[in-house]
Structures are given as C-alpha cells and as structure tokens.
Specification:
The model is unreliable at 500-504 (pLDDT under 50). Strands 1-2 form a two-stranded antiparallel sheet. It is globular, with a radius of gyration of 22 Å. It is built from 20 helices and two strands. By secondary structure, the chain is mainly α.
Length: 504
C-alpha cells in the first residue's frame, strides 16, 4: 500500500481541529456545527483504523505500513509503522475519541470550540505515540500529549483544577526530562534513534541500566506506579468527564506500551536486572492501592485508585516475560481502556444530574434509573474480572504468566482480584441498592439515547472480547513471540560473552 494511511490517521484530527477553529461560535447553529465537524472527523478516523486492522497481516512480526521521511538531516527521521502490539492501541484511541465528543452534551458550557480542538489534537498525538518508530518522534508525541490534557484539566476542571493541572504537568514532565537525556545518549553511542535499527544493533550493556532507569522514570509516572501515583486521583477528580475518560482510557496506556516497546526491546539486560523492582512496585500497587480505594467516598477518586491497581497488573504481566503475561497485559490495557472509560462516563451521568460525586448522595437509584443500573453492573463486573468479560481474560493471562515465574508473586497478585471485588461491589451496592433516602433523586431521569449509545458502544466489545478474545490474541501473538525470542537471545548472548557487548 502506497497510501500514507498512518500519517492520515495522525493528521486527520489536526486538520479537523483547524476546521473547528475557523467556525464562528457566536450562534446556536454554529455551536452545533462545531460538534458535528468534530464528531465526523473522529468517526472517520475510527473507520480508517478499522480498515487498517482489516488490512493488517497478523502472521508476521515485521512492522507494516512503514512511512519514512527525512526531517532533520542526519539526525531525525519521521518514521512511523505498526505491528501487532501497537495497532490495538490505535483502535482504542480512535474508538474513545468520538464517544468523548458525544458525551459532552451540555457538560461543557463554555469555550466548547477550544475544548473540542484539545480533544482532536490529543487524539493525533496519542496515535503518533503508538506509530512512532524513531525515539525523537516518539518523545515529541509522548510529551506533546501533556499540553492538551493540561489545558483540559486546568480550564474546564473543578474547583481545584489549577492545582491538579500543574501537579499532573510537573510530575509527568520531570520524569520525561530524564528520558530525553537517555535518548540523546542513545544517539551519541549508537549513531541513530531509529527503533528498528536499534533492535538490530543492540545497546551496549554498560549503559543499559542507567538508560533503563531514565526511561522508567517517565513510564512509571505515566502508568502511574506507586509511589508516583498521587497526581492521578487529583487529576481525575478535577477533570471534566470527557477529560477523565481520555486520561484513563488512552493516556495511562502510553507507559505500558513504552515498557513493551522500549524497556524490553532496547534494554533486555537491564529489564532482567530490574524485574524484582517492577514486581515489588506492582504488588504494592495491586494490594495497597486497592485498600486505599476501599476508603474513598468520592466515586471518581475510587475509580482512579482502581486504575492504579489495574495498571499494577499490567506492569506485573509485562515483566513476567512470558507469552501469556505480555498478552494478558495488552488485553488488560485494552479492557481497562473500555471499562474505566465507561465507569467515568457512568459517574458523569450522575454528576450531570445531581452535581455530586459523593457515594453518600446516592442509594436506591435502581428504582428510578433501571437502565443505568444494568449498564453500571456490566462495567462493575468487568472491572473485577468476572468470567465473560474482557477484564477476566487479561487478569487470568497475567496471573498465569506470573505463576510460571513465581508462585509467591502470583499468589499476592491474586489478592488484588479479591480486593477489586470488595471495593467495586461495595460501590455498586451503596449507589444502586439500599433505601432511597435522598428524595431529590426522584426527579432525575434515566439514561437518554446518547448516553445509552455511548455506554453500550463500550459494553458490547467488553462482553464480546470476554467470550471471544481470539481476534485480540491473534493480532498480538506473533509480535510478542518475536519480542520474547529477541529478549532471550540477547540474554543468552550476554551470558555467553561473559558480560561483554551483546553478540548479535
């Protein structure tokens, strides 16, 4: 295929944002046109990504649809391409974006045009991250995503939006500065920032530990891993619903993707050395943060802490370096993207009606919002990993991979499933069942047509992939096999060389 389909995916939302920019928003008709243009562009991008998945050859681990253009002569190439690992994240991004736009409705009542521009720019940058095959290009897309999310939280957020926005920005930026230094070091030692070439050349083992830590400093904050997770609950609580959806569904997946693509791919010796560290931090996130989630009285904050715990499963699975563990981590990230997005949307539905996120405000809403209660139940069960949902597939494979490496690690991680059931079912019980004490709730309507469409658009793939995960597994299987083989070969070569430079 000669058509630059990946560049089209990256650029189309940017072009759409320019159209939105030039629409005057001083009339109600124009107000609707802004929404329609944004929605049309994002939906078109989703259809292109579906076509891309259809054309994707999952029988090979080679990068496909590669585009390469010289940008800064002799230094940086604009190089993009996809394999089985990245294409699913592109699909997730293009699915979530139009749903975010639809969900806005009347929740954003000022500067709508600027908000939609931020969403579209965000989509472009996130797709760019998952397509990048050059470290510099990856870094630019990776850090560029900070700006629109910073604006979304800081302008359209809650009462403490400025504090939360700056906390989010500083946490993520400081971690990424070290990654930039590492990228410059890689160019200085290897003479290239091309990811494919670096896979072939290898990184000298003498530098791997320090480079791995530099990349880790950025990915750990973005995940977020304990103890650098504190920005996430604040960001979620203050962000508007659409911002929380994008943050949970897409932004948190950048680090998991980075761990697989770069930490394992470029620094296998260091990854093996630091695996106990990852196990320790992941288990703390799974167990301790789950207990913290149990103590929350704010629905958004509870779901935010549950995201930290679920991402603990992801990092654990990645560093098991087993086929099942890494496959489970990717499926868990896709599942978490669908489920967490839906849970934040469910909270947004109640908040738009009552302007309260406190669990104590609710109770007994099953009698007045039965449609809402059914949908929330589906996503609650998916969040705890009930069989028949996509959450079960991911967690089961991760635990299976962990058992192959360490019984104790897997046993401790299994506690996370129990704790997840505790805080999610308790949340559901307090909000949906019980006595209807707050009589003001009698006035609130059930789900409208747009809310039903959005939530079932997320519920259907959650249930479908829970019963039939084969399309996901088939897409990622060969790429992961190749990654593990390359990883094992590098470790073997390192041992055989007696600690010298990797033998290719």
């Amino acid at each position: 295929m000669n058509f630059p389909i990946l560049s089209s995916l990256i650029l189309l939302p940017l072009v759409g944002s320019l159209f939105v920019l030039f629409i005057k928003d001083n009339a109600s008709k124009n107000y609707q046109n802004i929404k329609y243009v944004s929605l049309f562009v994002s939906f078109a991008n989703f259809l292109i990504s579906v076509y891309l998945w259809y054309q994707f050859d999952n029988s090979t681990s080679e990068f496909q649809f590669i585009e390469s253009k010289q940008w800064l002569k002799g230094f940086v190439n604009y190089k993009v391409g996809i394999d089985g690992i990245s294409i699913l994240f592109i699909l997730l991004t293009t699915l979530i974006t139009p749903l975010c736009i639809i969900s806005i409705n009347n929740s954003i009542n000022f500067r709508l045009k600027e908000f939609l521009i931020a969403i579209l720019v965000m989509e472009s940058l996130m797709i760019g991250v998952f397509c990048s095959l050059d470290l510099i290009i990856f870094y630019l897309f990776f850090e560029g995503g900070l700006i629109p999310m910073f604006l979304i939280i800081g302008i359209w957020g809650g009462p403490r939006r400025v504090y939360s926005a700056f906390k989010f920005f500083l946490f993520t930026l400081l971690g990424s500065v070290l990654m930039l230094v590492a990228i410059i070091t890689i160019y200085w030692t290897s003479g290239t920032t091309d990811v494919i070439q670096l896979y072939e050349l290898g990184i000298d083992w003498k530098y791997q530990n320090l480079l791995w830590l530099a990349f880790f400093s950025s990915f750990a904050v973005k995940t977020p891993m304990w103890p650098v997770h504190t920005w996430l609950p604040d960001a979620h609580v203050e962000a508007p619903t659409a911002g929380s959806v994008f943050l949970a569904a897409i932004l948190l997946k950048l680090s998991g993707y980075g761990f697989i693509r770069f930490s394992l791919g470029l620094f296998p010796i260091a990854s093996d050395f630091f695996t106990p560290l990852i196990y320790s931090l992941s288990l703390i996130a799974i167990v301790f943060i789950s207990l913290v989630a149990l103590m929350q009285d704010d629905m958004k904050k509870l779901i935010a802490y549950s995201s930290v715990a679920h991402m603990g499963f992801v990092t654990l699975g990645i560093f098991t370096l087993t086929q099942q563990g890494i496959e489970g981590s990717i499926i868990q990230m896709i599942s978490h993207g669908l489920v967490s997005a839906a849970l934040f949307l469910c909270v947004g539905v109640l908040y738009d009606r009552t302007h309260s996120r406190l669990i104590s405000t609710y109770g007994g809403i099953v009698s007045i919002m039965p449609k809402y209660a059914v949908v929330l139940m589906i996503f609650t069960l998916a969040a705890i990993g009930l069989p028949g949902t996509s959450g079960f597939i991911g967690e089961f494979l991760i635990l299976l991979g962990a058992f192959q490496k360490s019984f104790i690690v897997a046993a401790i991680a299994s506690l996370g499933v129990i704790f997840a059931a505790a805080y999610m079912l308790w949340l559901y019980k307090r909000v949906v069942f019980g006595n209807l004490i707050n009589k003001e709730l009698l006035k609130i309507p059930d789900l409208n047509k747009s809310e039903i469409f959005i939530l079932w658009s997320l519920a259907i793939p959650t249930l479908f992939f829970g019963f039939y995960p084969e399309p996901l597994i088939n897409t990622i299987e060969v790429s992961i096999q190749d990654l593990i083989e390359m990883y094992d070969l590098n470790l073997t070569s390192y041992i055989e060389s007696g600690g010298g430079t990797l033998i290719k």
